[in-house]
Here is the input.
Amino acid sequence: MKLKITEESIEHLISDVSLGILDLAYILDYGSQEFLNTKLAYQTVFQSTMLIDTSKLDPLSAQTVFPLAALKTKPMLYYSPKKPTT
Here is the structure.
């Protein structure tokens, strides 16, 4: 078996699998992605909850639930798959 690990955009990975350049791609899916509706087979291997933090100065921080629609208007400055330290 020959194994090669690379990091590419989701679109690039889907394209490479579709073209037969790659046999398999592992993709972090952050929700409903229209480009994932391809003729490729897929399998969920892990599912969890995403944590979203915001500044205490942001009015959204006073809410108990972060409104998902606000994600379209807020810039994302940092993402980490690690658990936060408290």
About this structure: The chain has a mean pLDDT of 78. Helices lie at 10-18. The longest helix spans residues 10-18. The two ends are 42 Å apart (CA to CA).
